[in-house]
């Protein structure tokens, strides 16, 4: 397409790319889990029409899984009411040629196409239109993150109370900067719980990613860290006395990560580094764990009434005859403090949820300024636009096979400095594309155990162990 980079994109046919493993191994597993979820929902349905339709949906999902596993050709998506969006996808399928098949297509587009196909199956039904096959998994991971959830709630409550008590006192600039970095690094490593990639990890492994000590150890794994520059942007706007200072967060995962994003938003508002935070979720179930508006309300309900979530056995606990440990009164108060904070910010218009269907289009963000000028103008008016997670990074950089030393600004193309948007990407690496690294760093990481060695594969960038925090200043 005309606004795309000329640098080749990663393809599912490349045996040295994580794309190959994704199409052959990960996607069939994800579809199987989706089928299981619908099956569980169908067995609890007494409405005969909904039951029959649910069974048909299971057949359609199984058919899609068969297409992927047997390397069939990509077919046009049926119009499900979002005509313009579907036309954009189908134009791309057509542009790939009549022989485009699952095992030899651009990774970024084909993965978006996969989830858009799934969405269309539900959209074209009568009784399951708004059903989210990933909702159960998303809430399960939030429940399993209980130790980290409670620790953060307690720390946040103390922090906000300190900020308010010392509002007029002289502040230690260095301490403020360190706190900013700590809050953002919590947010960064929250991304490490990406459900679509954790097909083999246990909840205990997820919890290890989230404890305080783990965060301190993980700091050395941030390969590029532009957080000090991002801090200066917000601090400068604050010290200049700008009345409206907005920060946008293009969200990634639900569950624990959305919880951390909300804590970050609350911190930015409480510390006066922003006067408004706009959260930008997806509009349809996406890449297993991505935030949709219903995840936001689900999280608010969980925090408002934490005992309903934490003192009630999960389905699995019920089957095993286990009972969760009751929540302490202090923990309940900490979570309810959070709810009050968020509810107040929301009612005062300081914390806003603003979906846009563009986030689930199939192309890279190189196309954003031309394809959605209205959204582009919105982003330009923010002091900072934070893009969370791996997929947003892939979309920003067009998921292209750039040399690892390519400057981040350059890899953003039309979303770089000329865009008028201050872009901050928080990303734990779970795909091949990486830019902005110092000379020799990629080669050094490949030589680590499991890093890919001389195989031609950048395996070190597949598992979420390493992170990059990149800034591109557009104003």
UniProtKB/TrEMBL annotation:
It comes from the Eukaryota. Residues 23-444 form the Damage-control phosphatase ARMT1-like metal-binding domain. GO terms for biological process: DNA damage response. GO terms for cellular component: nucleus. Its EC number is 3.1.3.-. Its cofactor is Mn(2+); Ni(2+). The keyword Metal-binding applies. One of its GO terms (molecular function) is phosphatase activity. Gene3D superfamilies: 1.20.930.60, Uncharacterised protein PF01937, DUF89, domain 3. It catalyses: beta-D-fructose 1-phosphate + H2O = D-fructose + phosphate; beta-D-fructose 6-phosphate = dihydroxyacetone + D-glyceraldehyde 3-phosphate. Signal peptide: none annotated. Keywords: Hydrolase, Manganese, Metal-binding. Belongs to the damage-control phosphatase family. Sugar phosphate phosphatase III subfamily. Subfamily III proteins have a conserved RTxK motif about 40-50 residues from the C-terminus; the threonine may be replaced by serine or cysteine. Metal-dependent phosphatase that shows phosphatase activity against several substrates, including fructose-1-phosphate and fructose-6-phosphate. Its preference for fructose-1-phosphate, a strong glycating agent that causes DNA damage rather than a canonical yeast metabolite, suggests a damage-control function in hexose phosphate metabolism. This is Sugar phosphate phosphatase.
């Amino acid at each position: 397409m005309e606004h795309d980079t000329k640098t080749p994109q990663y393809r599912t046919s490349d045996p040295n790319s994580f794309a190959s493993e994704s199409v052959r191994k990960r996607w069939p597993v994800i579809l199987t889990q989706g089928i299981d979820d619908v099956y569980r929902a169908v067995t609890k349905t007494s409405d005969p029409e909904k039951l029959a339709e649910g069974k048909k949906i299971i057949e359609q999902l199984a058919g899609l899984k068969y297409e992927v596993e047997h390397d069939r050709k990509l077919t046009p998506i049926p119009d499900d009411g979002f005509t313009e969006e579907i036309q954009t996808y189908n134009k791309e399928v057509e542009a790939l040629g009549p022989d485009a098949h699952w095992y030899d297509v651009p990774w970024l587009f084909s993965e978006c196409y996969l989830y858009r196909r799934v969405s269309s199956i539900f959209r074209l039904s009568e009784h399951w239109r708004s059903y989210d096959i990933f909702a159960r998994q998303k809430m399960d991971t939030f429940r399993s993150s209980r130790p980290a959830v409670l620790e953060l709630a307690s720390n946040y409550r103390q922090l906000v109370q300190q900020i308010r008590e010392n509002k007029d006192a002289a502040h230690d600039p260095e301490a403020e900067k360190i706190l900013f970095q700590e809050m953002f690094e919590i947010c960064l490593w929250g991304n490490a719980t990406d459900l679509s990639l954790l097909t083999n990890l246990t909840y205990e492994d997820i919890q290890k990613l989230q404890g305080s000590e783990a965060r301190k150890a993980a700091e050395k794994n941030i390969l590029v860290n532009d957080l000090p520059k991002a801090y200066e942007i917000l601090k400068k706007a604050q010290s200049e006395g700008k009345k409206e200072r907005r920060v946008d967060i293009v969200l990634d995962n639900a569950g624990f990560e959305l919880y951390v994003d909300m804590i970050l938003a609350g911190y930015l508002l409480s510390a006066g580094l922003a006067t408004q935070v706009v959260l930008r979720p997806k509009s349809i179930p996406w890449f297993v764990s991505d935030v949709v508006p219903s995840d936001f309300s689900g999280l608010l309900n969980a925090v408002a009434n934490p005992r309903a979530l934490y003192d009630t056995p999960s389905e699995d606990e019920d089957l095993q005859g286990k009972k969760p440990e009751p929540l302490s009164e202090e923990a309940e108060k900490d979570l309810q403090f959070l709810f009050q904070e968020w509810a107040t910010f929301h009612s005062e218009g300081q914390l806003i949820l603003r979906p846009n269907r563009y986030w689930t289009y199939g192309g890279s963000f190189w196309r954003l300024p031309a394809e959605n000028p209205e959204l582009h103008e919105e982003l330009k008016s923010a002091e900072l636009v934070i893009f969370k997670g791996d997929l947003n990074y892939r979309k920003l950089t067009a998921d292209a096979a750039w040399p690892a030393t390519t400057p981040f600004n350059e890899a953003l193309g039309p979303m770089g400095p000329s865009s008028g948007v201050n872009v901050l990407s928080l990303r734990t690496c779970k795909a091949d594309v990486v830019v902005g690294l110092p000379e020799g760093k990629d080669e050094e990481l490949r030589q680590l155990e499991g890093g890919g060695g001389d195989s031609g594969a950048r395996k070190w960038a597949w598992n979420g162990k390493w992170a990059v925090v990149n800034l591109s200043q557009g104003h």
